[in-house]
UniProtKB/TrEMBL annotation:
CDD domains: AAA. Keywords: ATP-binding, Kinase, Nucleotide-binding, Transferase. Gene3D superfamilies: 1.10.8.60, P-loop containing nucleotide triphosphate hydrolases. It comes from Eubacterium maltosivorans. This is Histidine kinase. It comes from the Bacteria. GO terms for molecular function: ATP binding; kinase activity. Residues 151-380 form the Sigma-54 factor interaction domain. Signal peptide: none annotated. InterPro entries: AAA+_ATPase (IPR003593), AAA_lid_NorR (IPR058031), P-loop_NTPase (IPR027417), Sigma_54_int (IPR002078), Sigma_54_int_dom_ATP-bd_1 (IPR025662). The keyword Magnesium does not apply. The keyword Metal-binding does not apply. One of its GO terms (biological process) is regulation of DNA-templated transcription.
Length: 456
């Protein structure tokens, strides 16, 4: 079994089963594919073109029309030269529709030395819309830097909680988002805000685990003039007051100190607060969304979380599934993040299909946050327009010892990626707090990673 088969992890029996299938089955499958595919011979004659190719052109070229009329279809200028040896990416030609993003041209040879060109495959990759959860429109929002953001997902496990959240977005009901770290709870909280009548008002996201308790209280509730040493003489408004008529998202609510939980409960129940060092209550109208990756009921049993606050914030709760439980979203997410990078840096990179298979095989313990960092890593390490899995520096080292490790150890590679990112960030930012901000992780996690990767 060759390395390609090993990489796809299919059994020998399954490969024999595939090879025994009639060619017509594969031809019929390609005919039904929504992506346009053309197979050329070495001289530029069309051997096969599926119906999806037609929608890629504004006006059908003469050679394409001839093919569909069962006539010899020879292109004057095929998208490759006779000297082609490696796959490459082409921009859309002027006669193609705006839906075509890039074309991937891949040669197939009769020999391992790549001297006898057998045929060439041209694959049309299109810009696909990201539908809102009800399928009605694109789900877009603009962040503070003016970038358009989307919630990308098509799996039922992911869309079901979003549909429920959208239904109650119009209410003022507190929402508790449950799920592992990195699943995108902040983005989903923002989505609820954007679907609500408060969408034109302020949205604040606060990580309760990243700020010490006394500072967190001042951040949320503000403070009166002279409330403590070094306090501003004019005092300061807190996030709840600034976000009046808007939404406040309290991430990692399980890390909030017990005394501060009492004040949060007061805001929810009485819609008022007293700044630190103040005496007069201030009326605030905010929608509070909370999130945690901890078991709050277990924390209540251990007297680490207030039961009365739990019952108030969990009036409506949703669990956001981890990425390993919504594998259908991995390829759309990969294309989405890669398209963002292509737009930012003016490139036209695409994934090799084997790379996408590798992403699907991994469990992603860090969920979408980890996934995004890996896609960025692959983008910057790739030397060509097509991103192959061996483009990782770590994989190149593994290939030097191919006899000892013929298959890719993805866990080792991910650990090496984390090591590179943490070391690079620590070298530039010097402190664990700044590393946490740079990598969008908690300060405690940044501290642990720095001790693990940077103290040798």
């Amino acid at each position: 079994m060759n390395k390609h088969k090993n990489h796809l992890n299919f059994s020998e029996d399954y490969w024999e089963y595939l090879y025994a299938m009639p060619d017509q089955i594969f031809s019929d499958a390609l005919d039904k594919l929504y992506l346009g595919i053309i197979v050329w011979d070495a001289c530029g004659t069309v051997l096969f073109a599926n119906p999806a190719v037609r929608k890629c052109y504004q006006t059908e070229p003469a050679w394409l029309k001839a093919y569909y009329e069962n006539k010899p279809a020879q292109a004057e200028k095929p998208p490759f030269s006779p000297e082609i040896r490696e796959p490459f990416v082409l921009k859309p030609s002027e006669d193609m529709t705006s839906a075509v993003q890039v074309r991937i041209v891949r040669p197939v040879f009769s020999d391992e030395e790549k001297t006898q060109l057998k045929f060439v495959i041209e694959l049309f990759q299109e810009n696909l819309p990201y539908l809102d959860v009800d399928g009605s429109k694109e789900n877009l929002r603009t962040d503070k830097d003016g970038e358009m953001q989307r919630i990308v997902g098509r799996s039922l496990a992911f869309l079901r909680p979003l549909i429920e959240l959208k239904k109650i977005a119009d209410s003022n009901m507190p929402i508790l988002l449950l799920g592992e770290s990195g699943v995108g709870k902040t983005l989903i909280a923002q989505y609820v805000h954007d679907c609500s009548p408060r969408k034109d008002q302020r949205f604040f996201a606060v990580n309760c685990g990243a700020i010490p308790g006394n500072l967190l209280e001042a951040e949320l509730f503000g403070y009166a003039p002279g409330a403590f040493t070094d306090a501003s003489k004019a005092g300061r408004q807190g996030i709840f007051e600034i976000a009046d008529r808007g939404t406040v998202f309290l991430d990692e609510i399980g890390d909030m100190p017990l005394p501060l939980q009492v004040k949060i409960l007061h805001v929810i129940e009485n819609k008022s607060l007293v700044p630190v060092g103040g005496r007069e209550a201030i009326h605030v109208d905010v929608r509070i969304i909370t999130a945690t990756n901890k078991n709050l009921k277990e924390m209540i049993r251990k007297n680490l979380f207030r039961s009365d606050l739990y019952w108030r914030i969990s009036t409506f709760y949703q669990t956001i599934p981890p990425l390993r439980e919504r594998k259908e979203d991995i390829i759309p997410l990969a294309h989405f993040y890669l398209n963002q990078l292509n737009e930012k840096y003016g490139t036209h990179k695409v994934f090799d299909y084997a790379t996408l298979y590798t992403l699907l095989d991994y469990d992603w313990p860090g969920n979408v946050r980890e996934f995004r960092h890996v896609v960025e890593r692959m983008y910057f390490l790739s030397r060509k327009s097509i991103i192959y899995f061996p483009d990782f520096e770590m994989v190149q080292k593994l290939e030097e010892e191919e006899e000892k490790a013929p298959e890719y150890d993805f866990e080792f590679i991910l650990d090496a990626i984390r090591k590179h990112l943490v070391r690079k960030s620590y070298a530039e930012n010097k402190t664990s707090h700044r590393v946490a901000e740079d990598l969008s992780i908690s300060p405690s996690k940044a501290y642990r990673l720095i001790r693990k990767y940077c103290k040798d």
